[in-house]
Structures are given as C-alpha cells and as structure tokens.
Write a structure and sequence with these properties.
The chain has about 525 residues and is of the alpha+beta class. It has helices at about 5-10, 65-75, 95-105, 115-150, 155-165, 185-200, 230-260, 265-270, 275-285, 310-325, 350-365, 390-405, 420-430, 435-455, 455-465, 470-480, 480-495, 505-520; strands spanning about 20-25, 35, 50-55, 80-85, 110, 170-175, 180, 205-210, 215-225, 295-305, 330-335, 340-345, 375-380.
Length: about 525
C-alpha cells in the first residue's frame, strides 16, 4: 500500500464524478492529510498544511479581490487544493485565480452538481484514519521483518537493499568517509545527489545520523526524484537507522572480541619479544595496508573501577574509533582496569602529538558513558619510537609517565612522556639517590621559615623565578604591594644568599623546587624538624 494519499487519489472517490480540474493540474500529486469545509475569509492561521478545502464560495460571493486573497492564503498555508461547489454562490472563476493556481501548481476543482459536503468529509476522513492504521501496521511489519533479517545479515548492504526495495527510492549511506548508493548510480547522478545532500532542506530528501557509542558514526539518507517524502518514509528511515546501528555495533563487538583473543601476541610485542619479520607478518594479516611511520603506547586507566567486561569492550571500541579518525591504527590489550593501546602512526611524524591531543580532547568532551558514569581517564603516553621493534621502549616509558603523573601537583598538565622534561630527570634521580637530602640542602631554610612563621616565602620564590626576576610582575601575580615584595626578597637573600638569582645557582634552585613539589605530591617528603635547620 502507498504510504501517502494524493489529491488525484481522492478524485476517484464517490461524489467526485461530476468534477472539473480547471487549474493547477500539475499539483494533483500533492499530499492530503485531512479535509476541511471553509467558508470564512481569514484562514491563514486555521490550517496545518496538506488539507483539501471544500467550499461553496459563500465567503467571497463573486468578490474577486476576496477570492484572490483566500486562494493566496491557502497556497501560503500549503493546502492540498480547493474544491468549489459551482453555481450556488460562485458562477465564474476569474482568470487571475486560474493564473495564480497554475503558476503555483495549486489544484482548483469544480463540482458541477450540488454535493453533500458532510458525506465527502466523512468518507475522506474514514479513508485517512484507516490509512493511518494501515501505516502503523505496515511500519510494525517492516520492523519485524528487518529485525528478523538482522539475525542472518552478513553485510550492511543487505539493510540498504531492504529499505530501497520497500520504499522504491534512492538510498545513500555515508560510512567511514565512504558513500554507498543503493541502487548504484552513474557518475552524473552521483554528483547531483552530492549536490542535493550538501544543499538546504528539501521535501524530497530525508537524512538521519547513526550515533554509535555517543559519536556521529555514520549517516543514512533517502531521496526521491518524483515526490515529497512522507511521515511514513521518515518513520521507515528511523527504524532502518536503528537497525543499522545495531548491526554495526554487533560487528564492532565481534571484531573487538576477536582482537581480545590476540592479546597474548600483543603482550609479547610490548615486552620486546618479537622481531621485525613477525611484526610485519602480523600487521599484514590484520591491516589492509601497513603505513606505520612509528608507534606510541598509551596506558589508560578507567576510574571508578566498577565496570563490566562489556563496558571495557565498548570503551576500547570507542577509543579505537576516535583515534583511527586521527590517523592511527589501534591495537588494545586489557589488564583488569588498565588498557594498553598500541597506536601505529599512519601520517606525518610532525603532527602525531597534535592528533593525539585532538583525540583525547574529543573523548573528554563527549557524552560517552560506561554504565551510568562518565569514565575518568588517567593516561600515560610513552616515548614515540620509529622502529616497531622498539614498542617495548614506548611501553616502559608509558608506565613511567603514569607513575610521574601520580606524583605531580597537577597530573593532567601533560599525558606525554616527551613533554615531561625535567620530571623525567627528577624521577630518575629519586630512584638512585636520597633526593630529599639534596632538596633540603638548598630549600631547608625556606621550608623552615614558612613553617615557623606561617609565611609564604616558597610561593614568593616560585613566582619570582617564574617572572624572571621582574618585581613588578611578581607583585602583580601575588596580589601584594611592592614594599611587601621587597621585604620578602630581602628575606630570601638572607636565607639563600644574595647570589640566589645568579644563573647556575638559580637553575639549581628551580630544579630543587620541582623536586620538592614532586616529593610532596607523592607523599614522600619526610617530616623535618624546624629547630634543627
């Protein structure tokens, strides 16, 4: 059954035997959603669109100006057409009316015999209501048939074919930057469809995004060359998009489970146990093309740690989707609530950090949730390595990055090992020497003074060094007057020596300040006795 009723369909009904279409014959394919009897002159706000209007003409009574005004209001309100009982109050149709109707493809139909409007409205309303019930029934049948086919479908093209054969219109599916046409089209038709997709809204076009895992993953569109799309078309499109989302999610999940089975091989890779030949053989089997220009390992922890295995799998799918869009091939290894991602860089080396940051930002700003929670990510991104046999180096440095992150005052300043700079050196020293002893050698007088007098010399020292010795900028940042700052600087000179801003000593002090913050934030700064300093 057709999913729409047009004006020309109603002309075949009872009481429409003695009619004449005197204007707007090209508009007989207009959709009809209701029928109204209208005998008033102000109707612009009384209609919702697609109504077939019945009238005796009593509202204008041979008044041409009123007649023109009413017809223009009907056209503006997107009425389906105007049926006039000819002879009772209207004995002629002015040429101006006919010209307006022809120009806008607005059907004007004359009843040459008196007709019972009550019976016409009853008949058409019954038809429309029954038609709505039939549409609901057809929609449910379509959904059931589509869901049944989902159980055996092996490719999304089968879904596109299903909706295309049902609606008999062009189907376009945009998936992973590829455009699929069902049925296939010529190059000329392809360009025309692209133009229509990029244009403003058209009544012959409907499109719906397919959000998968809280991301705009794909898009499905339908378009007709000969008619406006109906509400039924839009409902069918929505049901089909839902089915496509289910199919694609299932495919991603199956693929992710297959990858999980290969975790053992990947675990040996990050431990440095594979040679280049076996790595290339593995990548040739799993990637369509191996364009890797280097690799990075990303350690990722999800907090809170209350997620199911299914939640973790969904997160891996989401992470892979985001970073593949940024030019990486992604492999994942799950270890409890820690996920280790191996990212192969397929684009320029010069942009890899920028692209990684874009991916991290997209995840952080998305509405992605696991269960009822938006996961908090704790990340450590290791050293970039050009040789795939050195992935274990990136893995070890990603672990070190995570450890350093935990010990900093501001752990999210950088996720990247390549951006930790001085903190890498502090971490190395801390593993081999008594770092606190060296820190106290330089900073003990300041720490002692602040604790004894509840002063802020350490903050002043940090700010003064950060401002490169600018007193004006330091006072401004600390929100203190110059005289207070001068007094504090004098105290710093007394405790640290008047040469504390000399180049070499200043570098040592700055390093020790970072080391002190490192020890305090990691709770490894042992208590010191104020009196002993």
């Amino acid at each position: 059954m057709k999913s729409y009723i047009m004006v020309k369909d109603l002309l075949q009904r009872k009481h429409f035997e003695a009619i004449e279409v005197i204007a707007g014959i090209e508009g007989l394919d207009r959709l009809v959603k209701w029928v109204h009897v209208v005998e008033v002159i102000n109707i612009r706000n009384l209609l919702n669109g697609h109504e077939l209007i019945l009238s005796t003409g009593v509202a204008w009574k041979e008044n041409k100006e009123l007649f023109i005004s009413i017809v223009e209001q009907l056209i503006e309100a997107e009425a389906a057409g105007l049926c006039i009982e000819f002879g009772t109050y209207t004995s002629m149709i002015p040429q101006e009316i006919i010209d307006i109707a022809n120009r806008t493809h607005f059907p004007i139909i004359l009843f040459h015999k008196e007709v019972p409007f009550v019976e016409i409205t009853q008949d058409i309303h019954t038809l429309l209501i029954n038609h709505q019930y039939q549409i609901i029934s057809d929609l449910e049948a379509y959904s059931q048939a589509l869901n049944k086919k989902l159980l055996t479908m092996k490719h999304f093209v089968e879904i596109l074919t299903f909706i295309q054969q049902y609606l008999k219109i062009q189907v376009v599916f945009i998936h992973q930057k590829e455009v699929h046409f069902t049925p296939k089209v010529t190059e000329h038709e392809r360009k025309a469809i692209h133009t229509l997709l990029n244009s403003s809204n058209s009544p012959k076009l409907a499109r719906v995004p397919i959000p998968l895992l809280w991301d705009h993953y794909s898009e499905l569109a339908i378009l007709s060359s000969d008619r406006a799309l109906t509400e039924f078309d839009h409902l069918i499109l929505d049901r089909t998009a839902t089915a496509l989302a289910q199919f694609l999610l299932r495919e991603l999940y199956v693929e992710e489970k297959r990858r999980a089975d290969e975790a053992e091989w990947l675990a040996r890779w990050i431990e440095g146990e594979h040679d280049l030949e076996s790595i290339e053989e593995y990548l040739a089997f799993h990637l369509s093309t191996n364009q890797a220009k280097g690799a990075i390992v990303c350690h990722c922890k999800l907090e809170p740690q209350e997620y199911s295995n299914l939640d973790i799998t969904y997160f891996i799918i989401y992470f892979r989707t985001i970073f593949e869009q940024q030019g990486f091939s992604v492999f994942a290894i799950e270890k409890r609530y820690t996920i280790i991602f191996i990212l192969l860089n397929n684009r320029s080396f010069s942009t890899w950090i920028h692209r990684m940051k874009e991916g991290i930002k997209k995840i952080a700003e998305s509405d992605f949730k696991l269960g009822n929670n938006k996961p908090k990510l704790v990340m450590g991104i290791g050293k970039y390595v050009e040789s795939l046999t050195n992935v274990h180096i990136s893995y070890q440095t990603s672990i070190e990055t995570m450890q350093i992150q935990k010990k900093r005052f501001h752990p999210c300043e950088s996720y990247f090992y390549d951006e930790l700079h001085i903190f890498r050196l502090i971490s190395l020293l801390h593993r081999h020497i008594d770092l606190q002893e060296i820190v106290l050698e330089y900073l003990a007088p300041i720490i002692s003074y602040d604790r004894k007098y509840n002063a802020k010399l350490m903050d002043t020292l940090k700010t003064y060094l950060a401002c490169n010795g600018s007193k004006q900028e330091t006072a401004k940042r600390l929100y203190i007057v110059r005289q207070t700052l001068y007094h504090r600087i004098q105290k710093l000179e007394k405790l640290l020596g008047s040469d504390f801003m000399d180049h070499e000593k200043r570098l040592a002090i700055e390093f020790m300040i970072h080391a002190y913050d490192f020890l305090v934030s990691s709770k490894q700064m042992k208590p010191i006795e104020v009196e002993s300093i």
